[in-house]
Write a structure and sequence with these properties.
Elements: E1 2-3, E2 6-7, E3 11-14, E4 17-24, E5 35-38, H1 41-49, H2 56-73, H3 79-94, H4 102-116, H5 121-160, E6 166-170, H6 186-194, E7 199-204, H7 211-223, E8 227-230, H8 235-240, E9 246-249, E10 253-255, E11 260-263, H9 266-276, E12 280-283, E13 289-290, H10 296-299, H11 308-311, E14 312-317, E15 320-325, E16 338-341, E17 348-351, E18 354-356, H12 360-366
Parallel strand pairs: 6-7, 6-9, 7-8, 9-12, 10-13, 12-17
Antiparallel strand pairs: 1-2, 3-4, 4-5, 10-11, 11-16, 14-15, 17-18
The structure holds 5-S-methyl-1-O-phosphono-5-thio-D-ribulose (MRU).
């Protein structure tokens, strides 16, 4: 994705020092564009937990690079000591955030690759680096393909509307910033815009951390996509008045049965879409599927974050990034970070392999190698 005309991914190895991982500090966006160096697993774990980087795909890529940093830092005296250290760092990374399944998926993929490399520490470090790069490249490529499949939905609506702008509503940031490139929910939007199909995006602000207002709006703006930020509760009204043609959201974990965990508030958008006959799609790369759990509401762990994220709001005041209290000082606040949208409310899933219905049969037809359940 281009930022002021220059192409960036959201995570990469420093050009002249491949022992350093570089990320864009998302805590500072949209006010400041700052690239941060990470050289230790502890720094990577903090970056994930504090949401300097965030979003399911990027969390997965960060876990991949985090495991490469783990390999670089591990003791070199013996292979068993090296492996034990890397495995312990994997547990540290996995503990940072519970809901996005990409995190554990990437750590486990790295552990397998490092274990499978020849019994030589240099070879194991090289394998960790190759695997981190492969996870990142795959994420970018899968999101590109999600765009190619998902753009058909927008094209079809555009044809039906005689070329009038297609209004897409999205929640949170499932954009380029939440992945390595392109994004999941935004990939079809960028593909449509690049193909000259008029598209306009309703951007849910996404309290409490405002990933929509701060991040989605910023990246759509950088790409020149027309958009309007709305307060979280606006979507239902817009749908009742025919002002939303399509909802596309991302997901932090989708079960092979079709239940979808995504940023808190997604469920309410799905209910409103269902009530108003608005198609509700979820875009995801296969790294966001959970092939084990069956019942989203009962089984998906929902992260609870600190109350201060609800009580304080960040913003820019006279050029300075500040935070202000928006509740009575003593009121307690609860901060459930995700909710689950049952499969019955989801029109379809847009994956790197194509579009399918949100049910076990349709999902497993796209991923037949997972059929052993
Ligand atoms: O808590 P965050 O910002 O990491 O939230 C995760 C998300 O980015 C969203 O829920 C998103 O829609 C999922 S798609 C990456």
């Amino acid at each position: 994705m281009n930022v002021q005309g220059k192409h960036y991914r959201t995570i990469w190895l420093k050009q002249d020092d491949p022992t350093v991982v570089q990320i864009i500090d998302q805590q500072l966006l949209p006010y400041h564009f700052v690239v941060v160096d990470l050289t230790t697993v502890a720094q990577m774990a903090t970056a994930i937990a504090d949401m300097q980087l965030r979003g399911a795909g990027l969390i997965g890529a960060a876990a991949g690079y985090g495991m490469y940093l783990a390999a670089l830092q591990a003791p070199t005296g013996s292979v068993p000591a090296f492996m034990a250290s890397v495995a312990a760092d994997g547990d540290t990374l996995k503990a940072t955030r519970p809901t996005a399944v990409n995190l554990a998926w990437a750590v486990d993929r790295q552990l397998q690759a490092i274990a499978a490399a020849p019994d030589d520490i240099r070879a194991k470090i090289d394998a960790a680096r190759r695997t981190a790069e492969a996870i990142a490249d795959e994420d970018a490529e899968f999101c590109r393909r999600i765009g190619q499949h998902g753009v058909r939905l927008i094209e079809e609506i555009s044809r039906r509307k005689g070329g009038q702008a297609v209004n897409v509503l999205t929640h949170c940031n499932a954009g380029w910033l939440a992945f390595v490139d392109f994004g999941s929910a935004t990939a079809p939007i960028y593909a449509a815009h690049d193909a000259g199909i008029p598209v306009h995006v309703w951007v849910d602000e996404t309290r409490p951390r405002n990933q929509g207002a701060r991040l989605t709006a910023w990246e759509l703006g950088q790409h020149g996509v027309p958009h309007t930020v709305i307060a979280d509760n606006t979507g239902g009204h817009l749908m009742q008045h025919g002002m939303v043609d399509l909802v596309i959201v991302g997901t932090d974990r989708t079960l092979y049965t079709g239940d979808v965990a995504n940023k808190i508030g997604t469920y309410l958008k799905a209910l409103a879409a269902h009530d108003n006959g608005v198609p509700f799609y979820v875009a995801l790369p296969s790294s966001s599927f959970d092939w084990e759990k069956r019942d989203g509401v009962k089984e998906i762990p929902i992260e609870q974050r600190g109350a201060t994220e609800v009580k304080l709001m960040h913003g820019l005041y006279r050029g300075e990034a500040v935070e202000v209290l928006v509740t009575p000082e003593d009121s307690p606040a609860a901060n459930y970070a995700f909710d689950v949208t049952p499969a019955r409310l989801v029109t379809g899933l847009v994956t790197e392999r194509g579009i399918c219905e949100a049910n076990e049969g349709s999902i497993l037809n796209l991923y037949p190698e997972k059929k052993q359940h």
